[in-house]
Every structure is written in C-alpha cells, then in structure tokens.
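Issue 218. Parser rejects a valid record. Input:
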Amino acid sequence: MDGVDVALLESDGETLGDIGPAATYPLDDAHRALLRRAMAAAKDGAVRGEAVIDEAEAAVTKAHEFALRRFVSDHALRLEDIACVGFHGQTVFHAPERGITLQLGDGQALADSLGVPVAWDFRTADVIAGGEGAPLVPVYHRALAQRLGRRLPIAFVNIGGVANVTYVGEGDTLIALDTGPGNALIDDLVTSRRGLAFDADGEITMRGHPDVSRVERWLEHPFFARPVPKSLDRDAFAAADVTGLDDDDAAATLAAFTASALNRGFQLLPQVPDLVVVCGGGRLNRGLMKLLATELAPAEVVAAEHLGLDGDAIEAEAFAYLALRVAEGLPLTFPGTTGAPRPLPGGRWSRPNRNN
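Output the parser choked on:
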C-alpha cells in the first residue's frame, strides 16, 4: 500500500523484449487509511455495493489513472503508443479456501478514462477453478530466468506484504507458493509504534535481537504443514504478538519469522537452488537480507539489482506481461503455482468505450 508501481515492458506474452523504465507514485496517508478501512470491512464480509468498498475502489482506479498519465508524461510517451495496461488493483481480502478473492479497481472505468485496453481481475478464474489465485508472478519469473541464462534451478523470492517463492527448474518445471509473512508485520509494527510507513533500510531490524521462542511458536501455525501450492492473505499472521518487546527486538523477531518461514517453504522444493533472487521491498531491509542469507545457505542470496534487474519493478513488469498473456489467451496459472487443475487462462479484457 506504499504506492502505485508502473513499468513498461515489450513482449509477446512469452519471450521478453525490452524492459523499459519504471516508477512508483506514492499513495497519501488518506488513501492508505481508506484502504485499511476497506480491508477491515472486507474481512467482515463487505462486498462491492457497500459504501467503503465502492469508495476505495474508485480511489484505487483514480490513483492508477493518475500514475499512468504521470508515467507517460514523465517518459515522453503517448497513451496511444501503449498496447494495453495490466491493472492488478488492490487486494483487500483473499480467502481461496472459501472461493473468495477481492481486488479493488474498475478495469473498465480505467480503460474508458485512458482510451487504452486494460487487462484486470487476474485471480478470479483461478479461484473459481479451485486454485489458490496466487501467486501470479511465477510465469514472469520463468521468462526472466530464460532471459538471464543462468543454470537452473533458480528461485525468485518476492517479499511484499506476503513473501512468496518461485522455483524455476529444468524441463519447464514451475513451482510457487506463498511462504508466510513478508513486510506486512514489520510495516504494521513501525506504523503503530512510530508512525512510519516501513523500516527504512532495515535500521530498526538491524538493531534488534530476535526472540527465537516466539518465532518457533508462530511456526506451529497449520499453514506451514500444508503442502504446495498455498497462498495467504496479507493479514493472515496479524495475531503474531510482540507485546513486551521493544521496537528493535520486535522488528528483528518479525524479520526472523519471515526468514524462517521462507526456509520452511524452500524445504518443500525439489532441490536447493544455487541462486536465490530477492525482489520486492524486503530486499532493502538489510537485517532481513542477512537473516535470509543464513536461513537459505548454501544458496547464493542476492538482490535483483545484482543481476541487472529492478527489484522494485518486477511485479509491475509481471502484470504488464500477464496483460499480454490475457490478450493472447495464454495461461496465467498452473498446477504447480496455484493448484489450478490445468494451465489456466484468466483475467478480464476491457476495451475503452468510445462513447465516454
């Protein structure tokens, strides 16, 4: 919920061409507060048609329109040069075991306002078919692995609100799973205690000492005993209690939970990869990266930038790539990534209404 990420990508939905510039346009405090209210309401069963959900959806759509217009202006582009937009929107509730996933954002309204086709609602078809609806980025990780030309298997770890791993192996093997909390618990901690959006550079985490007994207790959660594939809601571990710990030790303990949960996830993979590429905001938390290097040894753990990638932009690039796959009717999800019954196309495709 930090901002809207925008990235420019050239592809046919399979192989990658040029990877263009990327940018993030921050969300203001009022927008983030509205999203938190929408999340709380969705958790209590609110759906589209209820005031807070509709207000948040309109705000999400408008924020993305602003970001896209700003992006094309900043990079001397024209909207008419863009083939399509991949619009994920904001997840406010995800419970695939109940057949529910809710991402706010009106793709048709965005297409109408921009005059550009929009691919959106990427998760619903997978959930309806019995899949987890997440993670969606693995098929893009596979394209990146092919582009890098490194020896397989390679693992991509994304640490956003939730952490997930993609395993790209020989013979088109593609396995993915959410592993546990990412940055969400640390973000919520520093927001509630210090009024900060996140732990910049991991400075708070680096000063602390993890409470190992709490981490071990949290790892007894039933989620960690489930087989792959599996996915999580951002707030699935919101009950992880750091009461009695000072800010530094609390952040370090939550970071240790993220790293240990990732280790558990790696134990479910066919083999330990030689290389682990870390994407998302978590790669900027030095304390967390140090813990990951220990937990995932002997694998080499590197931030995406070490390989010439933009770790802030990979998810935005992925949804541009997925949009092109929606346009071509190509699969977005697979049995090894979401538990889909077969390689499954998905998403909705909205052309702009020229009457608007």
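Fixed in the parser; the record now loads. Residues 79 and 226 are 45 Å apart (CA to CA).
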